[in-house]
Amino acid sequence: MIKHKLIETRKKKGFSQEYMSNVLSMDVSCYNRKEKGQIKISNQEWQKLAEVLEIPLEDIYESDEGMIFIFNDNSSGTGNGSGNIVTNYTIPQSILDSQKKYIEKLEEDVRCLKEENLLLKNAQKES
After folding, report:
1. Residue 107: inside a domain, yes or no?
2. Domain that residue 119 falls in
3. What is the band of 94 on the pLDDT scale with cuts at 50, 70, 90?
4. Could you read off the pLDDT of 96-114 as tens digits, one per residue?
5. What is the value of pTM for the model shown?
6. All residues at 6 or more sequence positions from 56 whose CB lies less than 8 Å from its CB, including other chains
7. 18 CB contacts (<8 Å, ≥6 apart)?
8. SS3 state of residue 60
9. Hey, which of 25, 78, 86, 107 has its CA 20 to 30 A from 121?
10. Which domain CATH number covers 13?
11. Cα separations in angstroms, 121 against 48, 53, 124
């Protein structure tokens, strides 16, 4: 997910991506991918960015929730020989919302089943 708050704040402060990449000791292309949400920004990096931008962390922080990372082991000798590959996918918010509702429904079903199970155990003890 694109880090809109970070990008907007960085630009307001007049900092380039190159400057920010130097702050984080990384290549500018890597920093660019972090702003685009293609690579996760670590907690330490978020903290450093907030310090450099002289703002509270919560003013720029945007979660990577909804981003999944798929690790492919390409070490079998096939492919270009680069070894391990990480592919990033962003899950649309609508899917995350429906998934959350489904999980909540399943949790409620489990609670109901536990209650029913307890009632059945108690009824069995009484008979």
Report:
1. yes
2. 92-127
3. confident
4. 788 889 999 999 999 999 9
5. 0.52
6. 50
7. 28
8. coil
9. 107
10. 1.10.260.40
11. 56, 61, 5
Give the whole-angstrom CA distance, residue 41 versus residue 64. Answer: 8
Tokens matching residue 94: 């609508």
- Render the burial of 23-33: b for 16+ CB within 10 Å, e for the rest: bbeeeeeebee
Tell which of 59, 77, 106 closes a domain: 59
CA distance 38 to 120: 51
In a domain, 81, yes or no: no
Over pLDDT 70: what percentage of the chain? 78
Joined tokens for residue 47: 């903290």
CA distances from 26 to 22, 68, 90 (A): 6, 23, 23
Of 70, 68, 49, 69, nearest to 6 by C-alpha is 49
**Residue 65, in any domain of the structure:** no
